[in-house]
Each structure stands twice: as C-alpha cells, then as structure tokens.
C-alpha cells in the first residue's frame, strides 16, 4: 500500500509566486526525491489554466498526481477562511503557507488524516502596515484556524517560533525547518553578457526587496546620503513600486542624484546569480523577517553581507555577515552606511566575509529540509 503526502503547490502558479512560490517548488521537489519506501507525493492546486497545470508537472517531475479543486484561488482562499474545507484526496496534507483547508478532524481514529501548515514570519502582527487590510485579515483568520485545527506548524527559524509563541502558543506542535538556496541559482556560462545587459557598474550595492516599510529599503536609500557612501550606486532586485511609491521617487526625496538608485525588477535565476556575484556588498536591511533567504543566496556566492539585527537574520547569519542595530530608526541609515563603508574600505575583510558566508550557506539544504518534513509527518 502506498502512502501519499499531498502538498499544496498553488503558490508556484500564483500571480506573484514570490519567496513562498520558490519555497514550495524547492521543498516539493526534494520531498519527491526523498520520499521513503512506500510513499509518494501528489500536488494540490486551485482551479487554474492548463498551462499552469503543465508548468507544475514540468517543475515537479515525479509528482504522483495533481489534485485540482473546483474553485479558483481567490474563491478558495475565502472558502477555506470560512471553514468550507472539502479537498480532493485524503490522508496527509502539507501546506507551504497558511493557504490550507483547516477544520476539525480525527487524526487518531482516521489513520493518516493530518494537516501541517507553515508560518513563515510574524510580520502580520509586528508590522501590520506592511499588508493590505484584506491580506492582514486573511492571515490572522487563517492563523487562528491553524491554532485550532493544525496538527503541526512549520516555522523557518527559532526566532519565528519565539515570536509566534507570543501570539498563539502552539506548544509542541511547532517544528523549526529552514529553507536553502535554490538549486537553480548558479552562475551561467555567459556572465559578462548578462552583466552588460543589466548595465551592472564596476562597484555597486545590491539589495533584494520591496518598498514595504518593514523591508528597510527606504532606510537603505537614505543611507546613501552619508559621505562615506558617496557615489556608490544601489541596485534593487524585486518589484519597483509599492502602494504608489517607487524607487526613483524615494531616491529623489532623499536628495540623491538621478540614477543613483536603480530597480533591476524581477530577475531570472541566472541574472540574479550574476548580480549577486558581482556586487561589492549585499545589503539586507529588513526590519522584520522570518528567514532571509536572499541573504543566504548572497552568502552562497561569496558576496559580503550587511544585514539588520532582526532576530531571524542573526540566527540565519550566525556571524557570517555584519549586523546593524535597528533600534532608533531615525539613525538606522547612518549605522547602515558605517557598516557598508567598513566592508567597502577593507578588501581583506570583504574576502574573509565571502568565505565565511559560503561556509554558512552550505549548512542549509533542501534535502535536509524535506527529510525533516517527512519525519514530522511520520511523528504525527
């Protein structure tokens, strides 16, 4: 008899897959690769286009099946939020976020009936302004349902586990399982051509993120006003704007010359690898994070990293980067500038940080994460 782990893979084909989309793809691929004898993995996806179904099958070879719901994602979100939880298939279910059918079930008498969800951070509670009112309400409602009905909750760091305990005390249901660098993030055979197309300068700072207030990109832009960072440009990978703000306007308001801050937009893996590899310093100034995967990606390519002292980033970095105190946000840009300048002006330090970062990145593995997920379901 074969035991099937159903994984909700919907985020892979969401309008903006984002970090959770990448997490879902990488984890599911390794769940397939590490499936114990007698087990396999099937996907669950909301009603989508045939092209989306084909994309999932292409990205996840070896998937035992793809269960398709009758509702599209938006309608399914609302249905699951209000407790309408019918889902194709039965048995073990693993959600890579809070998008899950959470309702009362009998795991003891119905052998194998179990639901595990993932909470990536506590931003909805610590920085609610980062979300629209609709998304904020949805996250909080689904977290409440998880508290009532989930058999286990995966979090990426002990820092998130500690923060979550102050909101919902899941007790022993919490399991810390981190992420890792994507298997697709590799330097391509044509780095010079890609660098030229992206117009990468000889020296630049790189960050990944949005203008959401908790991401710290606005503070990083203001750090460029400090004399120790005179003239070095900042490139930002990710969406250019957020709620009417755009990078150019924020840079202009900070008094920076036109072109000093530039958006690279969304980057393909090969382009991101080149941009990370050639950056003088990767800066991750986020004020609230759950894991900080872009930081680990920079580590993997040997790029020195300056990051905030957010507890999750401190945990993941483990001293491989330079941490900057977030306290007193008014002077945070000054401290960022000082830390960045320290790396820029000390080639030996930058080289040492590069080696230490690569060593740190190697401690994270999607294979290891997948094996821990299988063990979690076995323990239940």
From TrEMBL:
Glycosyltransferase subfamily 4-like N-terminal domain residues: 17-181
UniProt superkingdom: Bacteria
Protein name: Glycosyltransferase family 4 protein
Transmembrane intervals: none
PANTHER family tied to this protein: GLYCOSYLTRANSFERASE WBBK-RELATED
Ranges where the Glycosyl transferase family domain occurs: 201-359
Alphabetical keyword list: Glycosyltransferase, Transferase
């Amino acid at each position: 008899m074969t035991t099937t782990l159903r994984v909700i893979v919907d985020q892979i084909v969401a309008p903006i897959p984002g970090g959770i989309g990448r997490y879902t793809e990488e984890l599911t691929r390794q769940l397939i690769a590490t499936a114990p004898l007698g087990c396999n993995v099937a996907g669950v996806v909301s009603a989508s286009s045939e092209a989306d179904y084909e994309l999932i099958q292409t990205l996840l070879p070896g998937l035992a099946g793809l269960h398709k719901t009758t509702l599209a994602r938006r309608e399914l979100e609302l249905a699951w939020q209000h407790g309408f939880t019918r889902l194709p298939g039965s048995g073990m279910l693993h959600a890579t976020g809070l998008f899950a059918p959470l309702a009362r079930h009998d795991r003891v008498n119905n052998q194998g009936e179990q639901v595990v969800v993932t909470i990536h951070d506590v931003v909805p509670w610590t920085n609610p302004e980062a979300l629209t009112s609709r998304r904020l309400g949805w996250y909080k409602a689904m977290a409440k349902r998880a508290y009532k009905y989930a058999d286990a909750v995966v979090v990426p760091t002990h820092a998130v586990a500690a923060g979550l305990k102050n909101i919902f005390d899941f007790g022993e249901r919490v399991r810390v399982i981190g992420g890792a660098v994507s298997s697709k993030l590799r330097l391509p055979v044509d780095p010079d051509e890609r660098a030229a197309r992206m117009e990468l300068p000889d020296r630049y700072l790189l960050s990944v993120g949005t203008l959401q207030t908790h991401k710290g990109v606005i503070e990083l832009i203001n750090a460029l006003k400090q004399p120790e960072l005179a003239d070095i440009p900042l490139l930002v990978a990710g969406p250019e704007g957020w709620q009417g703000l755009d990078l150019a306007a924020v840079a202009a308001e900070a008094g920076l010359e036109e072109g000093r801050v530039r958006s690279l937009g969304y980057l393909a893996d090969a382009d991101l690898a080149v941009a990370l590899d050639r950056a003088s310093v990767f800066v991750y100034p986020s004020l609230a994070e759950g894991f900080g995967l872009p930081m680990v990606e920079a580590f993997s390519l040997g790029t020195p990293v300056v990051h905030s002292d957010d507890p999750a980033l401190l945990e993941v970095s483990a001293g491989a980067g330079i941490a900057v105190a977030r306290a007193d946000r008014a002077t945070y840009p000054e401290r960022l500038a000082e830390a960045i300048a320290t790396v820029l002006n000390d080639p030996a330090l930058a080289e040492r940080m590069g080696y230490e970062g690569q060593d740190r990145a190697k401690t994270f593995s999607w294979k290891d994460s997948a094996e821990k997920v299988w063990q979690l379901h076995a323990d239940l």
